[in-house]
């Protein structure tokens, strides 16, 4: 087994020990494709979604068919040595086209103008032409010896095959450069959602890493052309690892905005449900009941049920609300230095607690109650704010005490 000193002098051996598994990007890309699949099925006519779906599908196919054992299987099934080369190159070229189509769709949004369609058509025509030329060059080349890992460098000086290798690398480099530059331009625009911005950053880094794949391949092939040295390890070790890292980052870049927004929404719903707990417990003393409990309900449904329970309980309580107390409590809260929104919530909480006490002291029946109480529109709309201040009883007591002092300071004849 080689020691550290030997590995330091042998970059190929070092990279082989730290190479990235092909299955990592395959798994990441498959997850991203599964997340996007429902949207793809429902809105297949959307060019942006079609471009994303094509990108993820071709990316998965590239890594599956570029795996050495899959290469051997393809060659064996078809009976043609190295036919996997133009097949994988074609998939990679189609992937490049999907990158550019995605950029066209992103830049133009819902625009369906003639220039947008023309740009998309040019991308399809040019890269379809590249695929055709790849197969023609392979048919003209003489490549009888199967190579599963080092075909690019092994046949780098073979007529027609060298042109094929150069063609797919140049097509890949051009598409990757354009895509990376436009994505980084988009990252710098204002008004982007934070999750989308981070997703775009990962996409930009991923496409930038793809350029390392091209640089490694071109350097290794160029060394073969010039005979200046054997740098095959750049093609067989560094380039595949760079491609795996790039594809994984791209997949995460697509997953992150959707996953982040989903988690953020889950957290918001659960946090809102938890914040309503103080007001919910107070309203239980009014209604004497509980909100329906369904352990298998979704978080959204539980939140809706809790909000509905609170609002239903507030309606009969409205007849006990003292609007004069609410005005004094609001003035008191502002006098204590609370900002206007919190002062309004504190005043509502003081009024609501007073109404609960009044109801317990002198409950009214429906026959003796007035037909309508004070306006409860604010309470119904701002139950979250009121519930939050109920967690600070010291603030409520301070506002209540100051409001009482304000009431006692008013002359009796007023």
Automatic annotation (TrEMBL):
Residues 266-389 form the DUF6545 domain. Residues 357-376 are annotated as: Disordered. The chain crosses the membrane at residues 20-41, 48-67, 87-107, 119-141, 165-187, 199-218, 238-256. The keyword Transmembrane helix applies. Keywords: Membrane, Transmembrane, Transmembrane helix. It comes from the Bacteria. InterPro entries: DUF6545, MAB_1171c-like. It holds the Pfam family DUF6545. The keyword Plastid does not apply. NCBIfam families: MAB_1171c_fam (NF042915). This is DUF6545 domain-containing protein. The lineage of its organism: Bacteria, Bacillati, Actinomycetota, Actinomycetes, Kitasatosporales.
């Amino acid at each position: 087994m080689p020691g550290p000193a030997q590995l330091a002098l042998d970059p190929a051996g070092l990279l082989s020990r730290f190479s990235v598994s092909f299955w990592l990007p395959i798994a990441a890309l498959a997850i991203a494709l599964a997340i996007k699949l429902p949207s793809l099925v429902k809105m297949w006519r959307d060019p942006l979604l079609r471009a994303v779906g094509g990108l993820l599908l071709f990316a998965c196919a590239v890594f599956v068919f570029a795996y050495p054992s899959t290469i051997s299987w393809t060659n064996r099934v078809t009976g043609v040595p190295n036919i996997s080369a133009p097949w994988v190159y074609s998939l990679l070229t189609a992937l490049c086209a999907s990158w550019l189509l995605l950029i066209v769709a992103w830049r133009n949004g819902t625009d369906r103008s003639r220039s947008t369609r023309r740009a998309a058509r040019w991308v399809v025509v040019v890269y379809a032409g590249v695929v055709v030329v790849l197969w023609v060059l392979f048919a003209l080349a003489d490549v009888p010896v199967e190579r599963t890992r080092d075909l690019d460098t092994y046949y780098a000086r073979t007529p027609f095959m060298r042109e094929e290798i150069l063609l797919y690398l140049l097509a890949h480099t051009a598409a990757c450069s354009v895509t990376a530059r436009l994505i980084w331009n988009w990252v710098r625009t204002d008004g982007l959602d934070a999750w989308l911005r981070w997703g775009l950053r990962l996409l930009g880094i991923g496409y930038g890493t793809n350029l390392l794949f091209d640089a490694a391949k071109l350097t290794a092939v160029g060394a073969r052309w010039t005979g200046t040295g054997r740098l095959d390890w750049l093609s067989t070790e560094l380039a595949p690892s760079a491609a795996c890292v790039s594809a994984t980052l791209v997949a995460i870049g697509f997953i992150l905005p959707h996953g982040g927004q989903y988690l953020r929404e889950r957290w918001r719903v659960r946090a809102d449900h938890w914040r309503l707990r103080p007001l919910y417990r107070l309203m239980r003393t009014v209604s004497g009941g509980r909100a329906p409990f369904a352990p298998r309900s979704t978080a959204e449904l539980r939140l809706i049920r809790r909000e509905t329970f609170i609002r239903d309980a507030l309606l009969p309580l409205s007849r006990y609300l003292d609007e004069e107390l609410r005005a004094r409590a609001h003035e008191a809260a502002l006098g204590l230095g609370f900002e206007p929104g919190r002062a309004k919530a504190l005043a509502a909480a003081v009024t609501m607690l007073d109404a609960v006490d009044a109801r317990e002291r002198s409950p009214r029946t429906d026959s003796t109650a007035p037909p309508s109480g004070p306006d409860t529109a604010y309470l119904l709309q701002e139950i979250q704010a009121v519930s939050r201040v109920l967690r600070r009883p010291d603030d409520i007591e301070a506002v209540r005490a100051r409001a009482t002092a304000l009431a006692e300071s008013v002359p009796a004849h007023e």
